[in-house]
Amino acid sequence: MTQRDNSRTVDIGYTLAGEAAIITLSIETNGVALPDSAVTTLAGDVCKVVEPGPRSIVWNAGADWPENVTENAKARVTAWLTNAPPQIMVIDLSKGTAATALNPYPVYYYTSLEALPGGGLSNAIYKTDGLVMRKISSGNYAMGDEATAGASVMVTLTHDFYAGIYEVTQKQWYKVMGTDPSDIKNPMGPVEKVSYHQIQENPNNTAMTPNWPQSDVPGGTSFMGLLRTRTGLAGFALPTDAQWEYACRAGTTTYYNDGISGASTNQLNNLGWWSGNSGATLHTVGQLTPNAWGLYDMHGNTWEWCLDWREDPPEGGTDPDGADAAVVAGQRVRRGAWYGDSAAACRSAYRSGKTPNTMDAGLGFRLFRTLP
Questions:
Q1: How far apart are CA 315 and CA 134, in angstroms?
Q2: For residues 280 and 300, is the Cβ–Cβ distance under 8 A?
Q3: In Å, what is the CA distance from 221 to each residue of 53, 95, 226, 294?
Q4: Interior angle at CA 174, CA 289 and CA 362, nearest 5
Q5: Cα separations (Å) of 253 from 167, 181, 211, 245, 321?
Q6: 94-108 pLDDT, tens per residue?
Q7: N-term to C-term CA, the chain
Q8: Which residues contact 65 (CB under 8 A, 6 or more apart)?
Q9: Helix 223-231 to helix 170-177 angle, to the nearest 10 degrees?
């Protein structure tokens, strides 16, 4: 680790042996790590998958740490297994529809939201050209509640997964698909009027065979298929019904995901856009209070598609994947309610469904990626 003469630019060299890995960097002074927000202006072989060999990182300390001086600094370079990545993943969609398997969307990894360049998550770029996802650890929970058909069922999820911090926005959909079907135009608002088929199977709004749960491979020109091709990463899909509720609850067992007992509409006003506070319109994502895992708008704003065929009561057990075929009016599950719904429909356990070719106002989705 060396500082360039007459400069506040720092060069860090390292050698990666063995196999490709995801590399992150922290800077320590007197044995104490600088805040993640003080080490964000980085270039070179960092915050991404790096191949073995001699590698380098450039840190612009003048931009991140302009008023500070130390004679005792160390760089800590960490290598993460590609199948056990860091907490935060960001897909850079700025290449738009021009991206291909050979000219892919860059994918970056960070140890926290504070490490995101550009001032962190508050930067509007993460609602337009950058799609931010948070890693959720596997675990057990009770799916459903006393108002759910059949009450609650125990679920075990055995795979970690990433979940979108925000619902997929209109600008993000446009970057991948080259269209914006939404009625209420807002580049940073959730995309709406997109069908299950368009997201997971075919952009012409038709089904593919086989499909979920017989196959987890999306259609090649669907949103998920294009995202897999243009990042070179597997696992992107809509969430299962069980994954969605697990991510929404974030460890809570209460009516809403704030962990507060009761069902006060004042609680909901802080968490989501519904008929009581939305003004009958969708809103820019990420304006209200996130859940304990940092996910915004899990209550209201737009309905969110899930993978599963709808069945009542929901399937429990280990990694449930829903019914094998359409059993309730040919519907796939949707979750979370929309800006025109009642407070009761916004609760964490509420389940509904629509036929997979439906393109309704207030019906969108959130991106998930299941890890091996």
A1: 25
A2: no
A3: 36, 17, 6, 30
A4: 50
A5: 22, 36, 32, 11, 22
A6: 999 999 999 999 999
A7: 35
A8: 8, 34, 38, 39
A9: 70
CA distances from 333 to 75, 169, 187, 189, 292 (A): 47, 20, 26, 22, 24
SS (H, E, C) 14-43: EEECCCCEEEEEEEEECCEECCHHHCCCEE
CA atoms 87, 93, 99, 103: torsion sign? negative
Phi, then psi, of 325 in degrees rounded to 5 = -150, 170
Q: Where in the chain is the domain with CATH 3.90.1580.10?
A: 88-370
Decide: pTM greater than 0.85.
yes
Burial tier of 28 (Cβ tally within 10 Å: 0-12, 13-18, 19+): middle
- Rounded CA-CA distance 46/298 in Å is 32
Q: In the CATH hierarchy, which fold is given to the domain comprising 88-370?
A: paralog of FGE (formylglycine-generating enzyme) (3.90.1580)
Which position has the token pair 């892919």?
104
Structure tokens at 69: 């001086």
* pLDDT confidence bin for 149, thresholds 50/70/90: low
Strand pairing report for 21-29 and 32-33: antiparallel
pLDDT digits (tens, 9 = 90+) for 21-67: 999 999 999 889 999 999 999 999 999 999 999 999 999 999 998 98
